[in-house]
């Protein structure tokens, strides 16, 4: 599309040359060279230029227009410091921050939840049964031993009462 517009300008009387310069990745500068101000005006007011402007409106916009004489002025002005872009709106910054913070936080919480489930299952079905078997005598002393102790205590307390 850009080549078509440059070719259309080449058909105009007084045309000396054209080209496009790319500034970074976003800005394109289209340079036309004409023999005089009158021939430039004729190109800018032509129906061919108007048609190309309408076709380019979907993907390009004009940010400025400047006429200069000679190459030195053009290249000297290109070395000037570019404008600093305006900071983004606060809601956009908030959205970017949320987009950066939310997924890792959600993933972290999911991992912690799954870890808790895993530990609970491990303790319930593997560790606790083994520990209970290992400590069975301590947790559940044998009943005969209990009964024997009770009988001895009772006999001892009776003997003490009889004295």
Structure description:
It is a single chain. This protein has helices spanning 2-10, 37-44, 47-56, 71-78, 90-134, 136-139, 143-162; strands at residues 15-23, 27-34. The model has no long low-confidence stretch (mean pLDDT 79). The chain is mainly α and 163 residues long. It starts with a helix and ends with a helix. Helix content is 64%, strand content 10%. The chain has two domains: 2-78, 2-Layer Sandwich (Alpha-Beta Plaits); 88-163. The protein has a two-stranded antiparallel sheet.
In the CATH hierarchy, what is the architecture of the largest domain at level 2? 2-Layer Sandwich
Structural class: mainly alpha
Helix content: 55-70%
- Radius of gyration equals 45 Å
Report low-confidence residues grouped into runs of 5 or more: none
Using the alpha-carbon principal axes, give the shape: rod-shaped
CATH class of the largest domain: Alpha Beta
Distance between the termini: 123 Å
Number of strands: 2
Described by strand count, sense and barrel closure, the largest sheet is: 2 strands, antiparallel
What fraction of residues sit in β-strands? 5-15%
Q: Might you state the CATH topology name of the largest domain?
A: Alpha-Beta Plaits
Number of individual domains: 2
How would you spell out the order of helices and strands? HEEHHHHHH
Strand order of the largest sheet: 1-2
Total DSSP helices: 7
Mean pLDDT figure = 79
